[in-house]
């Protein structure tokens, strides 16, 4: 009987440790999720900025080409 009680106490201790580890893992997962969302948003904006710069450069090039072609015809 004493052996069974010791086993139950040992099992309870292991379950408690496992529960603590699971809580720590959950906290880490939540922190990772938050960090990943921030990083995704950061690079989304960076991508938007690059597209805007590219489109701006393209528009400037088109304006220069049209301006040059109009000046040549005068």
Automatic annotation (TrEMBL):
Gene this protein is translated from: Vamp3
Lineage, broadest ranks: Eukaryota, Metazoa, Chordata, Craniata, Vertebrata
Pfam families attached to this UniProt entry: Synaptobrevin (PF00957)
Highest taxon listed in the record's lineage: Eukaryota
Keyword annotations from UniProtKB, A to Z: Coiled coil, Membrane, Transmembrane, Transmembrane helix
Annotated localization: Endomembrane system
GO biological process annotation, one example: vesicle-mediated transport
Cited CDD domains: R-SNARE_VAMP2 (cd15870)
Single GO cellular component term: membrane
Primary localization class, coarse: membrane
Family: Belongs to the synaptobrevin family.
Protein name from the UniProt record: Vesicle-associated membrane protein 3
